[in-house]
Amino acid sequence: MNINIVEIKSKELIYQYLSKYNNCFPESIDYRVGDLYAYSEKLFKYAYTFVAQKDSETLGIIILYANDNKTCEAFITMIAVDMNYNAQGIGSALFEKCEEICFQSGMKYLKLEVDKENSNAIRFYAKRGFIYFSEASKNTIYLRKELHYVKMD
């Protein structure tokens, strides 16, 4: 499948994508963060937002903070792929872009939070090198990956 990964640089578009994927998680995004518009403003200022598109259709999204220069740890705050496109490389393509941003930003670790019961997601992350890091809440855990970059001569 030929997909394009596109960076979203508009508060309004970020808000539209948050609204689109709001109920794709065990706890909706607005339940976790409150006001989606205020959250989209925060993401616009401090995070990278990328969508996977084929033609004009959006197939998935990833949102990443890669600005902690003290710990050099990036954090994926959201990844979602439309159910009709699961297991077609969309999540992998989004992760590749995410790791590219981590490299450009000098990050050494990539961390995310996942529902303990979401075995499909945990398997997906494990295949990409994520391992258990710590408890996040009663229902979620943190997974973390050490990033290794191949130096090209």
Quick summary:
This protein has 153 residues and is an alpha+beta fold.
Provide the fold topology.
Elements: E1 4-7, H1 11-21, H2 29-33, H3 36-46, E2 48-54, E3 57-65, E4 73-81, H4 90-105, E5 109-115, H5 119-127, E6 131-135, E7 140-146
Parallel strand pairs: 4-5
Antiparallel strand pairs: 1-2, 2-3, 3-4, 5-7, 6-7
Helix pairs in contact: 1-3
Number of strands: 7
Oligomer: single chain
Helix content: 25-40%
Distance between the termini: 31 Å
Into which percentage range does the β-strand content fall?
A: 25-35%
Mean pLDDT: 89
Widest sheet, order of strands: 1-2-3-4-5-7-6
Order of helices and strands: EHHHEEEHEHEE
By CATH, the architecture is named 3-Layer(aba) Sandwich
The gross shape turns out to be globular
Count the helices. How many? Answer: 5
The CATH homologous superfamily is termed: Gcn5-related N-acetyltransferase (GNAT)
Low-confidence sequence ranges: none
Largest sheet: number of strands, sense, barrel closure: 7 strands, mixed
Domains (count): 1
Q: Briefly note the CATH topology name.
A: Aminopeptidase
Output the keywords.
153 residues; alpha+beta; 5 helices; 31% strand; Aminopeptidase
Report what the structure shows.
Strands 1-2-3-4-5-7-6 form a 7-stranded mixed β-sheet, with helices on both faces. It is globular. Strand 2 and strand 3 form a beta hairpin. 34% of the residues lie in helices and 31% in strands. Helix 1 crosses helix 3. The protein has one domain: Aminopeptidase (3-Layer(aba) Sandwich). The chain is of the alpha+beta class and 153 residues long.
